[in-house]
Prior knowledge:
Layout: E1 3-8, H1 13-16, E2 24-28, E3 31-32, H2 36-42, E4 47-54, E5 57-64, E6 73-75, H3 113-119, H4 130-139, E7 144-147, H5 153-160, H6 169-177, E8 182-188, H7 195-207, E9 212-217, H8 235-256, E10 261-263, H9 265-270, H10 293-307, E11 316-323, H11 327-334, E12 344-351, H12 368-375, E13 383-387, H13 404-411, E14 414-418, H14 422-430
Helix pairs in contact: 7-8, 10-14, 12-13
Amino acid sequence: MSVKISSVTPRSAAFRAGIKAGEELVALNGNKIVDVLDYRFYQLETHLDVTLKGEKGEYTVKVTKTEYEELGLEFDTYLMDKERSCRNKCIFCFIDQLPKGMRDTLYYKDDDSRLSFLFGNYITLTNLTQHEIDRIIKMHISPVNVSVHTTNPELRCMMMNNRFAGQSLKILEKFSEAGITLNCQLVICPTINDGEELKRSLNDLEKLKVNSIAVVPVGLTDHREGLYPLTPFNKESAEATLKIVEEFSEKCLEKYCRRIAFAADELYIMAEREIPEAEFYEDFPCLENGVGLLSLLYDEFAFALEEKQADENLVRNITLASGESAAPYLQRLFDTLEEKFPKVKVTVVPVINDFFGHKINVTGLVVGRDLINTLKDRNLGDKLLFSTSMLRSDGDLFLDDTSVDDVRNALKVEVVPTANDGAQLLDEILR
């Protein structure tokens, strides 16, 4: 197997060695190159025998470079291979609950171990070949982020609609034995993998010495026609789940001086509980799962506010749009401005989610059309702020393909997408 080289970086080590675009990379120091992980791992050597395939067949060139210097080869795709899609059909899969008519890329389910390492994506382990398992161990690729959901093999098969899902849990054991850092996620569905099953999963993962466990509630849209009937969380079930997670994390704190397991902010909100302060979340290992986001924002905002000089004459009238669940917490945050900036007013407006359904109330799933419909008849003041988490990674479109310009034109106000960073948010309010 070989990978076609699309270009060679000028003045790079590969350029100096005379390697040309259009040739195919076969191996580095005798190690076959299949994809980006192979390439990034084996190119680290300072002395490389680069095996290539050209018009006259295979040949090898010697390349010398410094330790941290890139070899300088570019390929048609970042992965140097096709992205691998998910083979499961989980009963709680959010993508299966999307409305029809969205852009095709939103319906793609990835389950690619390379994306786990490179970008922090979560994988189920059901897609891994023996070659990939061996490679992760050999290269000590770490961390690996795993969507576990349950450590009960039979229940995992049922929840993921994959007869191999239970068997793949053994891969967790192999990775643990090899010293691979494991970050795990449990999506909890009431009456299915909560209660005693949740306790089992937490205890099993503790034995594997995983780095972190994020416990998150299932998200249910209004577009579940023909899908497995699931029970939404309510105040009582959220409280019961929090109790299990907190008891487990306290036990871990006593044994290991760290909590290991954390519940998503959404569970605290649904249970009508105060979200713990920033110190509770240690080094925030599960932020990408919505765990500790609000506490970190509070902490960053408060620290930045302390550094600001009071200004009783500064006048600002700002609107911030958010999901319904976070809105009261954010309003309390902005009320802390009053002492130093008594004429700075920030009004938080919760956006009702008609697009996905009213059971979806997190900020990251607010779409442009709902933003416009909620705010169109309001006085928005000097400008409108909203979280960049509402936008796709390119930062220009909401999930419903509405653009930032569409919102700006519809509402006739300055619109500023703002990062989930308390200090940056404060700066934008005071600017």
